[in-house]
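question for whoever is on the cluster today: can someone run the full assembly for these? two chains, 327 residues total. i dont have access anymore since they changed the login thing
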Amino acid sequence: MADELKFPNPGERHVARDADSLDERTVRAIHSAYSPPVAGDQNAYWNSLQQRIMARVGAVLPAQRGQGWWSVLSGWSEVGLVAAAALFVVGGFVSNRLGEPDDQVAYDSVVQPSTPEAISARAQLITASDQSDQRDAALQYILSY
Amino acid sequence: MPVPPRINDEERELVAAAKAGNQEAFSGLVRLHQRRAYLVARAIVTVHEDAEDALQDGFVRAFQALDRFDPSQTFGAWLNRIVANAALDLTRRRKVRNTEELSDALRSPFRDPAENAELRERLADALAKLPERARSVIVLHDVEGYTHVEIGEMLGIPGGTARSDLHHARQKLRELLKDLRG
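^ ran it for u. tokens below:
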């Protein structure tokens, strides 16, 4: 396929000339100065350069294309990992929120003091059952906790 | 004003096949465009070996970006912008080269024997003395025939700046070559 291509002539592109343009001789000399420094067969040079370019392209090719169906899966694996991580975070948050009422009740039952009514009733009970010694009553009240 | 060449059917087929991963088709595109792309790179980096590096890098980038190529554009213009960018990246990475080194880079032993030796020598020295961008603009415009707008797109500068650079570069070059014998 490539052999059927026509090479563009280096002078094919029309160069717009104006009153300020450089003279033809200087332009030709600049063109010559910027051409590849090749002795002999120019086509051999370009063929060699083409091969080197394609070798570079070939080196990146496996990473870019044609790795088979598993390359499609590997492309999706990143998306899958992100989705799984997001699900894990959301799931953990939801689970945490749902378990919170039970935890809160358990926490309150341990931390919060008894209501004043309960304390008062208990104190009266202690006082009534043993009025002889207020100090013993206070001690029992403390020990009851 | 030159009319930009339209993408032909053969090239369109090569681009489509290359997009589908056909290496042979991409090789055909390389064969078709490497000469002009080389001159674009060389106009920017000046040194032959750097131009080859930039060219190879540009083609690799183009291959990687094929999916983003708009088929309504000309492939050559799109490619040359990529190659020019690769060349500009290379010049940023390279140390600033001195005038003597650049002059040597433009004074190749493999030249047309009919070419005026004095002109060749003086021109190499004169081009090496031009600022980097002015040198690129004069080669891309006066030798390769790109418009100011195209050059601006390649070098990342406004078209008006490319026009102004060209004017100053021509003036400077004439001044440096004014006593040259005909």
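summary bc i know u wont read the tokens: Chain A has a mean pLDDT of 71. The two ends of chain A are 96 Å apart (CA to CA).
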